[in-house]
């Protein structure tokens, strides 16, 4: 498995002969695109159409719960099974500044794949597939730039699946209570914008 992981990495990793525009494009994907996801989630909570507001807010909280689970699982796996990044062992080319911490599973992969799977399971298949496509691009970019192995991204996908499964199983026990608490806090903190009609009640 390690040999396959290494071969795939060397095949995908950018070299000094790679086009500069492609390295720049990969850098944008690797660093900036993932920031769109929190904006999407905030938008769903604040400005969904009135007839969809309850289901969208449940989606937001359920997704956030899945992400918490996934991050915890990822942290534990990283501590129990530490794995060096490619540049930390002098393999390939390194095009993005990054600390030489453990690489498996990928934090970026865990984040984007948890969101994409959550939207696929609890929203619409097309929205999950669209986010999954973004996730694949982000995964490629971080391998291309030399900061992750291919299996790091597969690990992020698997951890995202486990996070969503755990959230689904746990939601029936605490979901409604969590939703009620979140609504109460939201309405207290954003009372004025709600009153002015800037955001949904």
TrEMBL record:
It catalyses: di-trans,octa-cis-undecaprenyl diphosphate + H2O = di-trans,octa-cis-undecaprenyl phosphate + phosphate + H(+). Residues 59-168 form the Phosphatidic acid phosphatase type 2/haloperoxidase domain. Keywords: Hydrolase, Membrane, Transmembrane, Transmembrane helix. The keyword Acetylation does not apply. The chain crosses the membrane at residues 21-47, 59-82, 102-122, 129-147, 153-174. Pfam families: PAP2. Gene3D superfamilies: Phosphatidic acid phosphatase type 2/haloperoxidase. The keyword Transcription does not apply. One of its GO terms (molecular function) is undecaprenyl-diphosphatase activity. This is undecaprenyl-diphosphate phosphatase. The gene is ybjG.
């Amino acid at each position: 498995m390690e040999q396959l992981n290494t071969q795939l990495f060397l095949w995908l990793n950018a070299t000094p002969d790679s086009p500069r525009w492609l390295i720049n494009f990969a850098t944008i994907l690797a660093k900036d695109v993932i920031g769109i996801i929190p904006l999407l989630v905030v938008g769903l909570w604040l400005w969904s159409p009135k007839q969809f507001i309850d289901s969208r807010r449940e989606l937001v909280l359920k997704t956030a719960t899945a992400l918490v689970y996934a991050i915890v699982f990822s942290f534990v796996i990283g501590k129990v099974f530490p794995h060096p990044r490619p540049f930390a062992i002098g393999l390939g080319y390194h095009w993005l500044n990054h600390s030489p911490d453990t690489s498996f599973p990928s934090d970026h992969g865990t984040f984007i794949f948890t969101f994409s799977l959550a939207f696929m399971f609890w929203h619409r298949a097309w929205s999950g597939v669209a986010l999954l496509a973004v996730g694949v691009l982000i995964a490629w970019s971080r391998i291309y730039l030399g900061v992750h192995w291919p299996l790091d991204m597969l690990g992020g996908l698997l951890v995202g699946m486990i996070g969503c499964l755990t959230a689904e199983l746990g939601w029936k026990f605490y979901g409604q209570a969590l939703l009620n608490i979140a609504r109460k806090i939201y309405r207290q903190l954003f009372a004025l914008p709600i009153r002015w009609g800037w955001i949904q009640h």
